[in-house]
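To the wet lab folks,

You asked to see what we're planning to order before we commit. Fair enough. Below is the target structure as tokens, and below that is the sequence we designed to fit it. If anything looks off to you, flag it before the synthesis order goes out.
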């Protein structure tokens, strides 16, 4: 396997696990992951949020870690990247309003490169207009956005993942094992157990 260069578009109050876990997992198997945020530079931090299910009608939110970006959004050249990761949390709500983020997402679909989105990351996919005719999982509260943008909401188990061509999606962080396994398969990553 040759190492892939992967772009991760993050933002303030993205879900902590959905940023940290894929970032570290993909690097642990030898890929390069460039984590960027619009209007921030390499070395800047974003605030993350920890979402949990504690018995209320929706998830709770608590302040997470400071996550250090390792690349500058304004310096990226999309042609240099083999794949894209879109974490969830609250960040997608404002990231989808950024024209450069939308253009970046469309690039990966126009070129057929692998894309992994989890939870509220589907909000960015819907805003980019790339879900028409596709099956897409997401946090259940995002189902109306998936269907309004022409996609079919994949109502799967919270720890499941869905692959549709070059797109791997999942409902939330409990799906990390399935989501990352399916994304690694799209990347052509082979892990040998000895």
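Sequence we intend to order:
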């Amino acid at each position: 396997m040759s190492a892939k260069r992967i772009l991760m578009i993050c933002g303030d109050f993205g879900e902590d696990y959905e940023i940290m876990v894929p970032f570290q997992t993909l690097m642990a198997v030898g890929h390069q992951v460039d984590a960027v945020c619009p209007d921030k530079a390499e070395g800047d931090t974003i605030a993350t949020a920890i979402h949990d299910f504690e018995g209320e009608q929706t998830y709770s939110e608590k302040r997470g870690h400071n996550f250090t970006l390792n690349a500058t959004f304004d310096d990226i050249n999309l042609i240099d990247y083999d794949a894209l990761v879109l974490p969830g949390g609250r960040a997608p709500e404002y990231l989808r309003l950024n024209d450069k983020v939308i253009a970046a997402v469309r690039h990966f679909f126009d070129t057929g490169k692998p894309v992994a989105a989890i939870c509220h990351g589907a909000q960015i996919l819907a805003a980019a207009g790339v879900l028409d005719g596709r099956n897409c999982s997401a946090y259940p509260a995002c189902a109306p956005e998936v269907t309004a943008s022409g996609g079919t909401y994949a109502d799967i188990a919270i720890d499941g993942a869905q692959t549709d061509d070059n797109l791997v999606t999942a409902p939330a962080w409990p799906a990390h094992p399935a989501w990352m396994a399916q994304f690694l398969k799209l990347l052509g990553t082979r892990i040998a157990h000895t």
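Structural context that might help your review: The longest helix spans residues 16-28. The domain at 5-187 is CATH 3.40.50.880 (Rossmann fold).

Thanks,
Computational group
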